């Protein structure tokens, strides 16, 4: 179980990176894609960042005990 959490953290961080870059590129290009998905992508980014932070806290808590 302890080896599984770091994998989840990496997956969460890579997901944040992918959503962030998609949102930034969409904003830079503008147009219909940005109007339709810009706000949703940034909300997903915030949710994924929160997940990554919670997983990191969980890993630190489990490593301590």
Overview of the structural elements:
Helices cover 92% and strands 0% of the residues. The chain is an all-alpha fold and 65 residues long. The two termini are 14 Å apart. 8% of the residues are buried.
Q: If you compute it from the alpha carbons, what radius of gyration comes out, rounded to the nearest whole angstrom?
A: 15 Å
Question: Oligomeric state of the chains?
Answer: single chain
Percent of residues in beta strands: under 5%
The overall pLDDT average reads: 92
Give the structure's gist in a few sentences.
With 65 residues, the protein is an all-alpha fold. It contains two helices and no strands.
Highlighted features:
single chain; mainly alpha; 2 helices
Q: Layout of helices and strands, plus pairs?
A:
Blueprint: H1 4-29, H2 31-64
Helix pairs in contact: 1-2
